[in-house]
Amino acid sequence: MTIDTLCKKLQTSITFQLRHAEDEYERRGVYVTGLQEFSNTVLPALHVLGEAEGAETKAYIQGQAAVIDFLTWLAIPFIRSCTDHEIAVTLLDEIGAGCTDPQVQKKLTIYTNQLKARWHQAEPGGLSHNPRAVRHRQGSGKRGFPLLPILMGVLFCVLGVGIVLKVMFPPTLPEAKDFQPAAPIAVKVAPVTSEPQSSPELPQKMSEPKPSARAGSVASPSEPDGENFYRYIDNQGVIHFVDNSDKIPPRYRGKMTVYRDSPSTSQTTKVRIINNQVLVTVTLRNGDRTVDANLLLDTGCSVTNINGDLAARLNIDGRTTRPGIARVADGRTVATRMARLDALSVGPRTKSPIEISIMPNSGPGEEADGLLGMNFLRDYAYHIDFNSQHIRWH
User: Fold this and answer.
1) pLDDT value at position 217?
2) Parallel/antiparallel/unpaired status of strands 277-286 and 289-297
């Protein structure tokens, strides 16, 4: 099979998947899967062709042109639809690292730089936290101009000149007659009385009880909180939880949500803490199948994921899943399958329905069946008591 035929076959497959994608999220997953397939099949085939016939032959040049055309066809919509720039940059970096053709590698570098520009525009400062970029800078053999030693030398010279001038020309102090005593400051002390003074600024009906707020309603700032807690979203899209409505800025009070927990509901959930990792027992429901599992609580994981064994226990139909992408602990990006469960429960908290990602490997550890991610955790206020090994819900 020629390189051109291989690219056209892969292009046909991707086009078919894009036509049947239900939403933009699925389309992004198709682009990611296509790029990974491009890295795993097309680039190795081009390398084998170059080794066999040479990079100057007509067959190789034609194959190189087909590869660049296919990459352009796939990378441009991938960049335009990208929402997780860090994962996308890491993916293109990995593809470029495995590419042996300089022209294709140059094209990948151009697309990576376009992604970085969009990332910097969407999240200023986020690019400096890309761990892969840091590794590249540390691993490159280029050395910059030794600016720090020069700056230190200039600083010492300035300090030395200052000390010499101070010794040669000591400052003269003004004579005592030049100083005038400051005028005394008069302080008025109010008399202290034993009777409390009423403040005219305070309303006279502060002690009157107000009706309690229900979950999802809007409460006034002076409303007694009791066991309520409050959720609001600021202009940056950050979700906040507070235990008192007075802590909410006035401009967000009209959009806050009030939660009241039932007194009979348990507000703690037992967990296991192993090597500073929090292992949580969860209940997952898919149709008529309900399964208990152990997930690691991971606030750095955007979508809750489970391993293949747990997916089989839940009887998830592979035909109903969608392509996705996830980054594993060592920084690599892997193709996953996305599915929707009817419910996920942790103690008294339940989210229904919930999106989960099915990882292709065996999972994060022997005792864990997956990771409990932020698409569940961000909806609830909680803290972890490491001493008693409990999650305390608020």
Assistant:
1) 35
2) antiparallel
